[in-house]
């Protein structure tokens, strides 16, 4: 048989300025590219395994997990395949089908899927709605009180630390206190924060924390982090009855290959960049202020933004699309001419983007490019 | 904080002749190293995703999955994180806690863990025991009959196509017929076969098939293949109620990163090498015959071997260990001096190894090296 042509290249996304928020935090530093080269082949991290991935001495996965635990202030760390697999494992270990989990109204679809795959009911804490979409500890307390009054038990409280729609940074400590006061375990989804901003699991009363290596930790996907406090270790890291050393929720072992080598190589880089998170936020605020100089552009979500993922309403760009011969594609095409990619093709009414990791000059160039495009079509927009 | 030194290099295993069976089938061809470079960063295969990984047009994951389906003769294919995650997903989708699965006595620990994590009971079909450890369709039929007589229902029949202890190739078609006759769905674990030897899922009455990219398909881990026949697609590939396009057992998507790019790049190479499987088996038989010229060395499992993974009893090498100043480590060290690695340090009584993918000259050199070591210590062995 003959294979189709799969177009296995990514030059466009690698060589242009990519504003896709999904891709900004996963770019590998050079040392992780080197690790990828070393550990390219198959089960490359398993050469010195004596039965447990998390205890492999060479490369020192055990040492890395200790460092990670310190980095996010949690007792135990395992790698999983991603944030969603971490959430699934926690729910699978501590909930029974039919149980109820409480999640924020901005939760990622993968939180819903992890619950649904486990047969759980989802109750949502509503956000404040348009335009801020804010999630608050008070909202959690109210919803919990209502459920309590209805006699409904809650098995797990889940909070999206930073959501993927608005980049709102929630008050994890506040929600942690509410959950703690109610005696319900608390799972914090840090897919958009761990590796970008500081995470203080213990300080925030977090029982379980998940992160996403490919999303925010400069690692090759798929890989995620699952952090567990001591109190829950026996349950979440339960061993197999038959194969004594193997952890059941990990199916023995998880990241048996290159992605963990890239995450290990990236950890020093992550420690460093998390220290400079303020600079990233400042850069994004500058970007927002420049973008908002363009007619009608407005950042949605909590303001001023506290994260690099920003969502803009762009009615002016949309009005151009109506009259442009290339319709909605003009924006993508004009940006691409300027070596900017990552805004979805055809999207003009609103978009999400991020300038995380770009230099001040690049951010200036990007904002200027949008302004230039707006100017160019000033006549046909309204 | 400061990170420990993780010793992120794999030079020893990359640059020497590595006999570890776990590593032989996962070595990347050059085109897959190139793909790894292209798709190093984070969520690199998600740039053109419209909601479903398996439908991504660029790189053409959809085209690749069609080709894979053809390669293993199955209706639907998804990538999963590995063979174990594929087995877990199948059991999760079609069994209820408390159900019984029938597995062979040579099953991999991950089959047990997949069942245990799903709360299933395991009934085993015994092998013929030492020295062949053969698994037969008759054994499956007998065990099923016994269970039937006891009024015990079986929800799933699982067979390890090639086991990881003896490299025995089982009669998948025969077991498929037994399962089919009994009206029980049949899951074939091809972790050690898919990507090495031909797989004919439909021809063998297989309902579900799993493969391991990092083990036998020249891919960077973690990645696996899950094949499903049409009849079961609705159950295994069930969509979320809330997020209509997302597949529940996949948690939306699985291999969102570099490993799938390496597997895609490797498929033409796999098609090619599977065609030459006979040559590999011949090479291994030659290797076994050379090894068995060494005093007391004997291949265990079905003979002549039908797979590259072979297990040797090596009492002579063990008798040397008793008297050697370096004890059991001498064998590892003598081999390493000859640029051969992959036999566990300290192991001399028996070992598993594979010469898969080595040239005839290399195989000759490896066998000759073992003979040379035996000769060197002829005096102190018995
Ligand atoms: C808030 C949030 N959580 C979870 C995820 C999923 O992360 P992963 O791919 O690691 O499962 C995402 C990814 O988009 C996200 O934005
Ligand atoms: C027979 C068999 N099945 C399954 C596995 C596990 O494969 P994976 O790592 O893809 O889950 C192995 C790996 O050693 C194996 O030998």
Greatest interface: A-B, 88 and 88 residues
Radius of gyration of chain A: 22 Å
In the CATH scheme, the class of the largest domain in chain A would be Alpha Beta
Question: How far from one another are the termini of chain A?
Answer: 56 Å
Uncertain stretches of chain A: none
Structural class of chain A: alpha/beta
| 3D shape of chain A | globular
CATH topology of the largest domain in chain A: Aspartate Aminotransferase, domain 2
Proportion of strand residues of chain A: 5-15%
Instruction: Give, in spatial order, the strands making up the sheet with the most strands of chain A.
Output: 2-8-7-6-5-3-4
Average predicted confidence as pLDDT of chain A: 97
Biggest sheet features of chain A: 7 strands, mixed
Provide the helix percentage of chain A. 40-55%
Question: CATH architecture of the largest domain in chain A, please?
Answer: 3-Layer(aba) Sandwich
Q: Any idea what the CATH superfamily of the largest domain in chain A is called?
A: Type I PLP-dependent aspartate aminotransferase-like (Major domain)
Bound molecules: pyridoxal-5'-phosphate
Protein name (chains A, B): O-phospho-L-seryl-tRNA:Cys-tRNA synthase
Binding site for pyridoxal 5'-phosphate (chains A, B): 83-84, 189, 212-214
EC number (chains A, B): 2.5.1.73
Enzyme class (chains A, B): transferase
């Amino acid at each position: 048989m003959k294979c189709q042509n799969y177009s296995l290249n990514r030059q466009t996304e690698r060589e242009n300025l990519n504003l896709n928020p999904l891709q900004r935090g996963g770019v590998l530093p050079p040392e992780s590219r080197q690790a990828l080269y070393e550990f390219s082949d198959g089960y490359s991290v398993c050469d010195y395994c004596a039965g447990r991935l998390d205890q492999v001495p060479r490369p020192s996965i055990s040492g890395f997990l200790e460092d990670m635990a310190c980095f996010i202030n949690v007792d135990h760390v395992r790698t999983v395949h991603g944030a969603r697999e971490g959430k699934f494992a926690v729910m699978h270990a501590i909930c029974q089908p039919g149980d109820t989990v409480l999640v924020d109204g901005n939760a990622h679809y993968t939180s819903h899927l992890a619950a649904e795959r486990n047969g759980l009911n989802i109750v949502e804490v509503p956000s404040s709605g348009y335009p801020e979409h804010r999630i608050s500890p008070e909202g959690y307390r109210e919803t919990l009180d209502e459920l309590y009054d209805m006699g409904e038990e809650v098995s797990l409280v889940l909070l999206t630390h930073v959501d993927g729609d608005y980049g709102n940074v929630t008050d994890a400590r506040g929600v942690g206190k509410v959950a703690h006061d109610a005696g319900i375990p608390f799972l914090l989804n840090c897919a958009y924060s761990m590796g970008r901003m500081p995470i203080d699991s213990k300080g925030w009363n977090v029982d379980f924390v998940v992160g996403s290596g490919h999303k925010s930790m400069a690692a090759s996907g798929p890989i995620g982090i699952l952090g567990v406090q001591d109190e829950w270790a026996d349950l979440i890291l339960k061993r197999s009855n038959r194969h004594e050393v193997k952890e059941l929720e990990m199916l023995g072992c998880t990241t048996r290959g290159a992605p963990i080598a890239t995450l290990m190589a990236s950890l020093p880089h992550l420690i460093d960049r998390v220290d400079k998170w303020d600079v990233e936020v400042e850069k994004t605020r500058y970007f927002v202020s420049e973008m908002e100089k363009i007619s009608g552009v407005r950042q949605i979500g909590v303001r001023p933004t506290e994260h690099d993922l920003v969502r803009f309403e762009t009615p002016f760009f949309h009005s151009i699309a109506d009259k442009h011969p290339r319709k909605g594609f003009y924006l993508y095409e004009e940006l691409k001419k300027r070596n900017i990619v990552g805004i979805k093709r055809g999207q003009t009414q609103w978009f999400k983007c991020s300038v995380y990791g770009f230099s001040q000059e690049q951010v200036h160039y990007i904002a200027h490019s949008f302004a230039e495009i707006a100017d160019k079509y000033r006549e046909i927009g309204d």
